[in-house]
Amino acid sequence: MISSWYLLVPVLLPIVCGLAVSFVKPLDHPKRRNPLTLASLALVAVSLVPIFLQGDMRLTLFTLSDALPIFLQTDTLGKVFAGVMAFVWLCAGAYSFGYMAHEENQKRYYAFYLCTLGVLMAVCFSGSLPTFYMFYEFMTLLTVPMVMHTGKKDAVAAGIKYLIYSVAGASLVLLGIFLLSPYTDTFAFTAGGVLNMEKAAGHESFILTVTFLMLLGFGAKCGLYPLHGWLPTAHPAAPSPASAVLSGIITKGGVLGVMRLVFQFVGASFLQGTWVQIAFMSVVLFTVFMGSLLAYKENGFKKRLAYSSVSQLSYVLLGIATLHPLGLMGSLLHVCAHALIKNTLFMCAGSIIHKTGKTQVPELQGVGLRMPGTLWCFTLASVGLVGVPPCLGFLSKWYLAQGALEITTVPGFFNWLAPAVLLISALLTAGYLLPVSIRGFFAKEEGPVEKCEVSWKMLLPVIVLTFLSVALGLCPQPLMQLFTSLSQGLM
Fold first, then answer.
1. pTM for the full model?
2. Quick one: which of 267, 445, 476, 431 has its CA closest to 371?
3. 208, 314, 322, 442 — which has fewest CB within 10 A?
4. What's the mean pLDDT when you consider all of the chain?
């Protein structure tokens, strides 16, 4: 048995190290700063193991009022997100040492990078909606400097746009907390929801409207239409390691918020068959198609991947919108698949841009001959995102389609519309990702081919993420068992 105070370790460890990086003079030099950064990232991942092995824990941080404690609490859902975030954050951090070697203001970047990880752990282990909201806002504020890192005009504009969209979405969530408080007995996340049906009687329409606004609020972080505009602006402006974690990890904070709201605050049973489920599923399906179509039409390398994230994140939201165990299973699987794959894609794109200076997809002919390891990883990750077996991306999309086919609480045309949109999106995904590999391997540049592969420090984390995205598809049994139990418990 470990004390509940141990919950502070994965939260405070990276924050303390981030502050040390920022203020301790000897850490100005990369030879001392980078080992400390890598060690702290690894220790956070390792420190989660006792929490995973322990039963549910609770730690009250402080109390705003007798009825409003701010506290951390572990559950299976939070542990899943914490594990994914910590591991991928470690890989992206290891990659960044090579990528950022010639960048200015490295100390500031790593300080915010470390502090953000600590806040992310607090987001995952938040025990109530007000606690979640508090750390969710901290997460936004700490990631804005990562978007603005270069200090260029477009980067500053992108950071401001990201902040405006995020604050607008969070404001809807905060408004919802105030408006729903009269109809709950507690703000603590509880499977099945916390609405008091006696208090809610006669106010169902109002509660549903507020819930929908909160879904849009959390959806802003996930790139849900119409609050998706920050992604294609922020990702190309940020350094590639920051783009990778913004797309693969930070957006998962919004996904976790949607899951907490639907399954542990309002309750799935309250939403099933309502206009909120129908409207949310409609917006999600539109975003899936729109994001894929815009990615297909976009020639900017990183911007194409950003539009791809708009679409793929709504795959996750689709599984939630089904309010069905199979759909939720697909959603959880896609959280893992997207985190691994999209970080791989952005890191490969960063490596190519870093070495060749080419930022447009039509310019990438022959890059596979110059950087074979990087482009092979990009290709395998692309195949996984399309949904080709045996990659994990295939398994997640299979369960998303199964969940859509099984639901009976929405009009019947959704049973075929959702799988059709998923199929069209998969074809578009192949259309905007695989040409990069085809052009890179088969379209040769004029003149001799000179190898310019990135260093092992940048390539190894990419290989690890690529390997896992395939290996977990080949051996999914542990994830399947975990997510089956989790989805049934949430429902």
1. 0.92
2. 445
3. 442
4. 89
